[in-house]
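Researcher: Structure prediction, please.
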Amino acid sequence: MKAKKSLIPVDRVTSDRITSDKIASMIHVIRDEKVILDSDLAKLYKVETKVLLQSVKRNMDRFPIDFMFQLTVDEYKSLRSQIVTSKKRGGRQYAPYVFTEQGVSMLSSVLRSQRAVQVNIEIMRTFVKFRRMLIKGDGHFLHTFIHLPYADVLAHGQYTDVQSSSTSS
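Model: Predicted structure follows.
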């Protein structure tokens, strides 16, 4: 007896699915902005960070400073100490870029793949959930993500801003 072929693509039924909790774990607060690292976005879009940044640099007029900015060396060191990073040979030669909600939204006009569209939709939904939770004061969404960086910020009403923690040392 032959097995029937699935009509659902394999990547849709595996852990490859983009979820709000996966995205929420990638949101950090830097310079009082909720941002996502370029390398995290590249993972979500399934492209190399280098490719993502090349696309952005070809369209720099679409990414003003309130959409995307590069971390200072001190901000990057502070962020690396707060998150688990793997030690790869060579490592990163420069401080990463980070994208605000508006910058992520603009990425969909630069990265024209179906994957980019779907990822951006989920990222926007995650940012909206955070905003609604703040407005309503509803901790339900927050408790789902209590172990995640941005959710932890909201839970305790405080955070160590990467910029201020690096300047106070």
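Model: The chain has ten helices and four strands.
Researcher: Thanks, that helps.
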